[in-house]
Each structure stands twice: as structure tokens, then as C-alpha cells.
């Protein structure tokens, strides 16, 4: 069972972070088509442990992430599981918006000094601002997940951004399997073809849920996930 205890709205082009406890959930709901939410995850007790997308994809034999998949740390533990998903595909390889992307796209940079919170923020800078609140910096950046976005490959292996993949009202829910420091931004995807810098926000709903067991869909989706949950169990025995 999942209950909602707190809700807020994160406007487009902004950033947010929070330490979420084990067995809590976060549901993100897009208000507009082609929304993008960049995600980084850290273990707040040891921030050297963080989301590792290469390991996440490799151990689950997938290029995309959706319901039933887990988000692994670089220590083989599961930080979060995707327990509900309207889209069926979230981008794991597209990366983060940098200033160079803005220039290449012809998106006009707008500074905080000129527009306050209506500035045009990159995903890269958004993460660094949030990370600084916890004593983290450039050396702590890792490959980020892009929720709501889809990047597919063609016959030659070239990556292509899929416009229209996310529609207004689409949502995805993460369940946290460890205490996790969550960092989000709503800067556009670096491959977004919009003519102007798009600002598309998301609703955030936080809640609590019952702990998973061996019958859980994420637990059962592959043998590697069962081992990941076993690693979590051992970790929490040590923490206790």
C-alpha cells in the first residue's frame, strides 16, 4: 500500500533535493508533454556510494528503464525500484544539459541576475547547486537518469531523441530501498529539439509503503535483482 504524505510542484528549469527514507515513495507526474526530470541518487551515510547507471543497465540486461527495474549503486545495492510507470521507457544514456548544448541549440541564456528564478538553467549547473548543499562538487557528478524522456537507436547505432514520448499526466513512481539523497532538476533533455528553452514542470508526491518481499515485481524481474535485495538486507543488518 502507498499513501501520500506530502506534495509539491517543481517548475520547469528548476532543481530540488531531499533525503528520503527507506520504504518511502516518490511519484512524479508531468504537467506538459516532453517533460524531462534529471535524477542523481546518493547514499547519505556515505556519499561515495551513488547511482551507477552502467551497472544498473548491465545487470538487468536493458537499455531502457521502466516498471520492474531497480536503480543500483556502485556497491551492488538497490537505491530505488521503479514500481509504477505510465511510459515504459526512461532514458539512461542521454546525459545532462550543459552550456555548450545551449549555445549549439541557439537557446538564449538568461541569467539569475536578469530574470531571478525565470533564468535558463542547465541540468549540469542545477545538480551542482543542489550537491553543494551537502558538501558535494564536480568530482561527485555521475551519469544521470532522465525520467520521462526516450532516446532510441537506429540501425546504425545513432541515438535519436523521441519527441512526444511523454504526454501531460504521465507519471512514474520510485520506491526507495535505502535511505537515499535524491537530487532532481527539470532542465530540458540535452537532445530536446525545441526551438526555445522549454520549461516543463512536475508534481512531486511523497509517501510511504510496505517493505517489498520475494514476491515483489522488482525483486522477481531477474536473478540479479534478487541478489541486489539480498545485498540490501546484509547492509541494513550492519547498519542496525
Topology of helices and strands:
Elements (H helix, E strand, L loop, with lengths): L1 E9 L4 E6 L3 E7 L6 E6 L10 H8 L9 E3 L5 E8 L13 H7 L6 H4 L7 H10 L12 E3 L3 E3 L5 E3 L9 E6 L3 E6 L16 E8 L7 H4 L2 H17 L1
Antiparallel strand pairs: 1-12, 2-11, 3-10, 3-12, 4-7, 4-11, 5-6, 6-10, 8-9
Keywords:
six-stranded antiparallel beta sheet; alpha+beta; 28% strand; 240 residues; four-stranded antiparallel beta sheet; globular
Can you describe what's shown?
- Helices cover 21% and strands 28% of the residues.
- The protein has 240 residues and is α+β, with helices and mostly antiparallel strands.
- The longest helix has 17 residues.
- A hairpin with a 5-residue loop joins strand 8 and strand 9.
- The radius of gyration is 17 Å and the shape is globular.
- The protein contains six helices and twelve strands.
- The strands form three sheets. Strands 1-12-3-10-6-5 form a six-stranded antiparallel sheet. Strands 2-11-4-7 form a four-stranded antiparallel sheet, with helices on one face. Strands 8-9 form a two-stranded antiparallel sheet.
- It has one domain.
